Amino acid sequence: MARCPGSSILMSSPGTSSNPPVGPTRTEEDALAHLQRLIASDPKATNWHLMLDNLNIHQSESLVRWVAQQEGIAAEALGIKGKSGILQSMESRAAFLHDPTHQVVSYFTPKHVSWMNQVEIWLSILVRKLLKRGNFPSLDNLRDQILAFIAYYNRTMAKPIKWTYTGLV
What we know:
mainly alpha, 2 domains, two-stranded parallel ribbon, 5 helices, 38% helix
């Protein structure tokens, strides 16, 4: 994975002041920690359905192990990464994470397509309204301005998304 010094990553999921969707990296550990905080943010929720792209960190060994732990599945039952069982391949891990009987169910967008048009539209608004002409003397300042923009957007411009795609039948 290429890294750009001084860059930040915006994860497009609900954020709170204790779980901002902005960070300096996008590692397997970052993704898992963000999802753990997201899920812990609503202890009353019994199921979570996550729309994710096919980035390798969304089908990671650590995410599979965490979901398995949540489901009471023994670590020994998962196999060995790259060799056997659920952990054998990205495909086997994705299939496990997509299991609808789990409390946390991941849905992966098809490869080679726009991963989520609505998110891409929102990100283009962020670029046009804030990032294109912004001055960010530090990563902390960039993060603070993005979080302030998200709060402003949610108060003044956000509208519910009307999904029209019903899926393949």
